[in-house]
TrEMBL record:
Keywords: Hydrolase, Metal-binding, Metalloprotease, Protease, Zinc. Its cofactor is Zn(2+). The keyword Zinc applies. The keyword Protease applies. Probable zinc metalloprotease. InterPro entries: Archaemetzincin, MetalloPept_cat_dom_sf, Pept_M54_archaemetzincn. It comes from the Eukaryota. This is Archaemetzincin-2. Pfam families: Peptidase_M54. It comes from Pipistrellus kuhlii. GO terms for molecular function: metal ion binding; metallopeptidase activity. Belongs to the peptidase M54 family.
Length: 360
């Protein structure tokens, strides 16, 4: 293992900048918010630690990139920010996210609520789910894993055409594996920052994907017809677990962060770190380091305390004493499934520590 450490001065400059105008902008932030962000360069901080590389296959070791401090983010001419006219994040579900309609509908509602809290102040809207056939995308059976895959680039083209007028971005989510081109094995997701569109798959986040008994393997692999989408009529979806939901929330917010112009973080342990594999993705925290938090706050304009409180509310929104998977009937007669949030509890404790610093 190798720990990536930066000097206090480097972290201070990445957060605040040496540009007098950006320094002045930072000094105008609420004093309590600055107290939290200054934890970035406090050596003894137990809130924000250094990045730890576990092998040469980890992202930073294998993908050298120039680091992006706040000044580089702020001055990036290609960066897009929400406006009064384009202030909504749209989520487009492609295929089913669960093995029943109720589970699929609840899952995408949980993702919507999480994005509303994470990108606090923006509107998040759900589009009507569409089957794979509606996208007219290419698809295949992966030669190694024997599971169905859909073409990520074709999905992006479909989403671009569907992007509503008031959309800052539109993101597709699916439980079907993705591939970007014939020569690639798979991809977790793909986005076009210029067009404000992205597609992300949660297929490999189920606990059984890499097992020999994975039920999503096509029983009799054969080259499917490019126009026969019947293979997706009963494709396999993993059981909805707390870990699956956590991984899905992490991927969705990481990739939407890129659409806001946040590059991979190389400063501190952070949601915006790159990841080459599932183990590395699991090690990433759920939230942003102070440097990336300042970037997102600049783009969206939220109050940090209100954002953290919204994230805690999202975790606490369900009754803790309701057994997981037990349907609940709301006042309108609709059936609601309790959110499986056990995997978020450690993160909730971390948020409470952050709130304690800000509200000191």
């Amino acid at each position: 293992m190798k720990t990536v450490r930066h000097s206090e001065q480097s972290l201070r400059t990445a957060l605040i900048s040496k540009n007098p105008a950006l320094v002045s902008q930072y000094e105008k932030l609420d004093a309590a918010e600055r107290r939290l962000m200054n934890e970035a360069f406090r050596p003894a901080s137990d809130l924000f630690g250094p990045i730890v590389l576990h092998s040469q296959s980890d992202w930073i070791a294998s993908h050298p990139e120039p680091p992006q401090g706040f000044e580089e983010f702020f001055s990036d001419p290609s960066r897009k920010t929400p406006s009064r006219e384009k202030h909504s994040i749209y989520i487009q579900c492609i295929g089913s996210l669960g093995n029943t309609r109720i589970i699929s509908e609840e899952y995408v509602k949980w993702l919507k609520g999480y994005c509303e809290a994470f990108f606090y102040g923006l509107t998040v809207k759900l589009l009507e789910p569409v089957p794979v056939s509606a996208t007219q995308c290419a698809f295949r059976v992966n030669e190694n894993t024997k599971n169905l895959q859909i073409h990520a680039g074709h999905i992006l083209h479909f989403l671009k055409k569907k992007k509503p007028e008031d959309a800052f971005c539109i993101v597709g989510v699916t439980m079907i594996d993705l591939y970007p081109r014939d020569s690639w094995n798979f991809v977790f997701g793909q986005a076009s920052l210029t067009d404000g569109v992205g597609i992300f798959s949660f297929a490999r986040y189920g606990g059984d994907f890499y097992s020999s008994s994975y039920e999503g393997k096509v029983k009799a692999p054969q080259r499917p017809s490019s126009r026969d989408y019947s293979a997706f009529d009963s494709y396999y979806t993993p059981d909805v677990t707390s870990v699956l939901l956590l991984r899905s929330c992490k991927t969705l917010t990481h990739e939407i962060g890129h659409i806001f112009g946040l590059r991979h973080c190389q400063w501190l342990a952070c949601l915006m770190q790159g990841s080459n594999h599932l183990e590395e993705a699991d090690r990433r925290p759920l939230d942003l380091c102070p440097i990336c938090l300042r970037k997102l706050q600049c783009a969206v304009g939220f109050n940090i305390v209100e954002r953290y409180k919204a994230l805690v509310r999202w975790i606490d929104d369900d009754s803790a004493d309701t057994p997981r998977g037990t349907p609940k009937h709301g006042p309108d007669g609709n059936v609601n499934l309790p959110k499986p949030v056990e995997a978020f509890e450690e993160w909730r404790e971390w948020i409470m520590k952050c709130l304690a610093v800000v509200q000191k």
